[in-house]
Backbone:
């Protein structure tokens, strides 16, 4: 489980090291066996919040957490380590848990790279090694910063299934992302905007809204646009309806450009 109450996180910036608040008055509860997605744009403080949850930075306020397994967005490894060495290192630190190294290697499809240096692997395979370390470290709270980054579509599905299986076994998971579609299966969603957890909802209502975007349902789209409009790609039909609505309201339009998932 994880509990945050009136949590503020600061850092020192600039030549004079002035104190700057990154996370403001965060309140958050995650029971055991549930997964939560923290969604926000780049630079809103997702990584800082996760580091505070994991105990890497010391926040002000109340933080109660179970034993943590933390996966950063950019995994770090010793340059001389091979894949098997990196896993065995964490396995030893975790007190040699019941899960075997061979089982973890098989689960993450790492057998072929057991003797390879981690630094020579692609970003996606390094991410697999980092996730494997987290799953075998014995924590009951998984904190994952952009865990799908660098993974192909099939591996994203596999990783999602592994996280869901871990939660069904009693673990909790916090996943930072800026794309709701990657984690639409989670139990709850919290939105981080300019350092504030501005919204925390059950993910079921968002899944309904997410489907509405691809069913050309303008009303469903507008109901969630304020919360997740930057993270969900509207269909072309919805774009046309929005433009028509703007014209009816005499709103001047210069240009509308769709780039990836952003309108």
Residues:
């Amino acid at each position: 489980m994880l509990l945050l109450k009136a949590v503020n996180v600061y850092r020192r910036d600039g030549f004079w090291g002035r104190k700057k608040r990154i996370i403001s008055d965060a309140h958050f509860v995650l029971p055991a066996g549930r997964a939560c997605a923290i969604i926000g744009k780049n630079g809103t403080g997702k990584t800082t919040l996760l580091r505070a949850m994991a105990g890497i930075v010391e926040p002000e306020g109340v933080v109660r957490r179970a034993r943590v397994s933390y996966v950063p967005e950019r995994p770090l490894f010793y340059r001389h380590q091979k894949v098997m060495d990196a896993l065995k290192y964490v396995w030893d630190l975790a007190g040699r848990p019941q899960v075997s190294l061979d089982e973890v290697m098989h689960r993450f499809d790492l057998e072929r790279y057991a003797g390879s240096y981690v630094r020579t692997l692609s970003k996606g395979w390094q991410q697999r090694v980092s996730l494997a370390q987290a799953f075998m470290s014995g924590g009951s709270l998984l904190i994952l910063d952009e865990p799908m980054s660098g993974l192909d579509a099939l591996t994203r599905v596999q990783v999602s299934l592994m996280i869901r299986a871990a939660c069904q076994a009693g673990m909790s998971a916090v996943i930072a992302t800026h794309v709701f579609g990657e984690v639409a299966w989670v139990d709850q969603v919290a939105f981080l905007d300019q350092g504030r957890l501005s919204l925390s909802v059950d993910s079921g209502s968002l899944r309904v809204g997410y489907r509405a975007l691809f069913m050309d349902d303008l009303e469903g789209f507008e109901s969630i646009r304020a919360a997740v409009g930057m993270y969900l790609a509207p269909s072309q039909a919805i774009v046309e309806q929005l433009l028509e609505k703007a014209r009816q309201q005499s709103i001047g339009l210069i240009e509308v450009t769709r780039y990836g998932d952003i309108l």
Notes: Residues 2-202 form a domain with the Rossmann fold fold (CATH 3.40.50.300). Helices lie at 46-54, 83-93, 101-107, 123-136, 153-168, 203-213, 218-228, 236-248. Confidence is low (pLDDT under 50) at residues 208-216, 227-232, 258-263.
